[in-house]
Amino acid sequence: MDWIEIIVHTTTEGSDAVTEQLMAEGATGTMVEDRADIPDPDKPNGYWEIIDPKLIDSMPEDVLVHAWLEPDASFPERMAALKQRLAALKDTQPACGSLAVETKDVRDEDWSEVWKQFYKPFRAGKKLVVKPTWERYDAQPGDEVIEIDPGMAFGSGTHETTGMCLELLEDALRGGERVIDVGTGSGILAIGAALLGAREVLAIDIDPVAVKVARENIAVNGLSDRITAVEGNLLDRQDMLCEVCVANIIADVICGFAEPLTHHIVPGGLFICSGIIKEREQDVLDALKAANYEVLQIRRKGEWVAMLSRRP
Fold it and tell me: What is the pTM of this model?
């Protein structure tokens, strides 16, 4: 079986967090390349630690976390998810370094095109149907069709976290709500919210590429009058209030956002969050409860968790 090697540039302090994100996206194993792990040859503790200085000199300045993923139909979605989560990690934990991503034996333009043959229309929930822009689909009565080309941004709908968020949005929205989509990626959740009846949607992301992709998808769906896509950090740049907020990001960011996010959600408003690996479920629950949210529903698919909660 062929494998694609992913290499993430980080620091000693960030290697554990990067490894966690790679494993969450299906890496079969990781290897950390860190010159700090090589004993200092000037301070040997025993004759077995006589190290050739050329070994240290040959190692990269950055700490490199290597991982291997299977190049199946889910590979592009998981790569986009990884890049989005690393971007969020960099925004909240600068000590993690650049978090630049490399791939070996595959070029971005190769896998970003080849995977399209696997991406077909599918149903997400009762009403929503996710349809790639290049595929045909005969809509059935009651269908709300999301036209999407995720490009290099996270959010084709095939990832477990995206699917659960769409399902929870379908459960939560009654029509006429204001919605904020934090970490919008391709814009799929913002578009889904608008099709489900939200009257105004703010789609925000720290990645300029994601914002560009989101704006294109919003236009394709004819929703530019109801959805505004902007680049930036919600807590720094926006003062919009909403009845429903959705954040499909990472556990660390959700934990940090939980309390300040209450200033953007009206009393009694709803917060949908995902991007949470099952090992971090309790951490997110603790953060929500500390901020006085009432957790209404928890969904789990594979290694991932999504939550619906209510602001007091």
Answer: 0.70
